Recover the amino acids of this structure.
């Protein structure tokens, strides 16, 4: 730094020549230098004060903002959420095949209490018990007056209940936002949807998780944010599902059955358009699983995929179809069904001890002859029969995409001998779910391909391995049509919609062995339109009794068949199937010449 001298020689010489005092020059320079030093010190101090002021301002803003966030936040229940855990509340919608909502999310609130902040805990307990009658007044009183600092009161409340609690004016009662699962159609398709509940939970959010049905089966997909909220589209048709449930419920009541199920399946894609299990429940208020008694008595029990039943004579068409496939018979082959017939010392009888004599293969199915079917099965043999039923998916749980389907394990003998071969051929000694039966009949209806039943919408046919030739499948379809026109399913006549199918009535087994004398499982497995089947419909009634006649009637022809016919009449137009006009009788008019 260059400093200016206090006594510059040039100015001193100039002052002496003029007679001025040179010391004044030095004093002036000292004054100027001091002023410059003061200005620099002042500027330095002001800069430091400015930086310090900015620092304190920023610190104040950070602390003030943090205090504001703390004041606005709500306390977390220690047991409900781990520190630092993040709750993913969003869950994708579930829609039917046309995009109509089956399950969605709904904004609601939870109610919790902070007892230390309550003014009148005793009064609050009394008033809350009035707003929520299901709450225990004494328990609330103990919780509010004890040492707890946080109490859950209700996980879900309605807007009206929230307003009623708000009107109490109690500062210790607080609300937390919630996103709950809503099923706007109530009980419709309850067993398919299953239901959801809260998982990880805090006062400001709650994780919605599936507990049954497709909600649990596709829980990861529905909760995955990577899907961008894309809806899960099912194969169900909401309109057809509603019609099927209405008809089946009415049929169950009329036939005095304790339960019922129906399955409507597209024979080419495997899509299940409708599946009903009764009794049912409301997934918005899902009941608790039973802890005692028969699980099948619970409304949570899905009879379509969990109900493992002997399905009776509906199996007879499988034996006939396999025998035709192997070249052992054709529809016109005559078989002697006369008795007696004994296998391994056990008699094989007919319904009501009938004796049909010699019948064609087609008439054996039409008349539902046990002996005739059994004799075809003996020609097939145990090994080939087991292999054929395995190809139809009858020996494993169905791949139907709801969690309950995995529990529908078929029951069949470990030692598959001649006796088992005969009894299984007419639907006894082996138990399956109605969903298995629907898939088996779909293979006949679509020309011989196995199709896997699915609850997801498909984009065209989903044929699996071929199990029957097209010729045998067509012959089997004609036999099933003849069962309706000439046989045990005559009540399945639906004007405009030809139906083919087979009845099956099986005595219901007792829990400790043996069979009931007066309790049956009645089933009708059908396909329509019979000349070019597009859909399979299976209707099963648990312990039906038709009482319009002099004696109670329990067979499927009197119980399951009329219900299925009414259902087809209702849903066929909804499926877009045009009725076939049947020509009426000609007028008795004769043209004569003039």
């Amino acid at each position: 730094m260059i400093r200016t001298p206090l006594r510059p020689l040039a100015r001193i010489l100039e002052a002496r020549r003029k007679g001025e005092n040179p010391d004044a020059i030095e004093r002036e320079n000292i004054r100027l230098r001091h002023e410059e030093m003061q200005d620099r010190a002042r500027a330095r101090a002001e800069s430091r004060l400015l930086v310090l002021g900015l620092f304190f301002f920023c610190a104040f803003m950070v602390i003030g903002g943090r205090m504001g966030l703390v004041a606005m936040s709500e306390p977390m229940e220690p047991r409900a959420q781990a520190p630092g855990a993040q709750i993913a509340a969003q869950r994708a919608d579930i829609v039917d095949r046309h995009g109509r909502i089956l399950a969605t999310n709904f904004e609601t609130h939870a109610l919790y209490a902070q007892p230390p902040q309550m003014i009148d805990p005793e009064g609050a307990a009394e008033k809350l018990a009035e707003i929520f009658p299901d709450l225990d007044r004494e328990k609330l009183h103990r919780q509010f007056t004890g040492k707890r600092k946080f109490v859950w009161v209700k996980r879900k409340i309605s807007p009206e209940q929230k307003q009623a609690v708000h009107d109490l004016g109690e500062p210790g009662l607080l609300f937390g936002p919630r996103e709950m699962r809503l099923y706007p159609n109530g009980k419709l398709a309850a067993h398919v949807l299953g239901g959801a509940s809260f998982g990880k939970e805090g006062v400001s959010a709650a994780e919605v998780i599936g507990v049954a049905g497709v909600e649990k089966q596709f829980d990861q997909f529905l909760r995955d944010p990577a899907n961008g909220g894309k809806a899960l589209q099912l194969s169900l048709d909401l309109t057809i599902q509603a019609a099927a449930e209405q008809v089946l419920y009415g049929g169950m009541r009329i036939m005095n059955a304790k339960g019922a199920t129906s399955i409507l399946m597209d024979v080419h894609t495997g899509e299940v358009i409708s599946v009903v299990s009764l009794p049912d429940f409301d997934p918005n208020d899902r009941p608790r699983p039973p802890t005692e008694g028969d699980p099948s008595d619970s409304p949570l029990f899905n009879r379509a995929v969990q109900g493992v039943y002997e399905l009776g004579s509906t199996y007879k068409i499988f034996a006939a179809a396999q025998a035709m496939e192997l070249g052992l018979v054709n529809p016109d082959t005559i078989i002697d069904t006369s008795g007696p017939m004994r296998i391994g010392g056990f008699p094989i009888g007919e319904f009501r001890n009938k004796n049909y004599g010699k019948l064609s293969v087609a008439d054996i199915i039409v008349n539902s002859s046990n002996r005739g079917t059994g004799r075809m099965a003996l020609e097939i043999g145990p090994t080939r029969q087991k292999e054929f039923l395995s190809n139809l998916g009858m020996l494993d749980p169905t791949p139907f995409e709801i969690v309950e389907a995995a529990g529908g394990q078929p029951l069949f003998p470990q030692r598959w001998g001649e006796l088992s071969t005969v009894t299984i051929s007419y639907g006894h000694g082996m138990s399956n779910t109605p969903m298995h039966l629907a898939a088996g009949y779909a293979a006949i209806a679509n020309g011989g391909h196995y199709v896997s039943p699915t609850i997801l919408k498909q984009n065209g046919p989903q044929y699996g391995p071929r199990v029957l030739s097209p010729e045998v499948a067509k012959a089997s379809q004609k036999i099933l049509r003849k069962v309706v026109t000439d046989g045990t399913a005559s009540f399945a006549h639906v004007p405009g919609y030809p139906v083919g199918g087979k009845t099956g009535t099986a005595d219901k087994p007792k829990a400790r062995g043996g069979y009931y004398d007066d309790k049956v499982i009645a089933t009708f497995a059908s396909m329509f339109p019979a000349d070019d089947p597009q859909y399979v419909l299976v209707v099963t009634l648990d312990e039906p009794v038709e009482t319009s006649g002099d004696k109670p009637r329990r067979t499927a022809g009197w119980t399951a068949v009329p219900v299925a016919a009414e259902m087809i009449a209702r849903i066929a137009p909804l499926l877009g199937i045009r009725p076939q006009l049947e020509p009426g009788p000609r007028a008795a008019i004769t043209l004569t010449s003039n």
Summary: The first strand starts at residue 94 and ends at 95. Residues 94-233 form a domain with the Penicillin-binding protein 2a (Domain 2) fold (CATH 3.90.1310.10). DSSP finds 17 helices and 16 strands in the chain. Residues 394 and 498 are 27 Å apart (CA to CA).
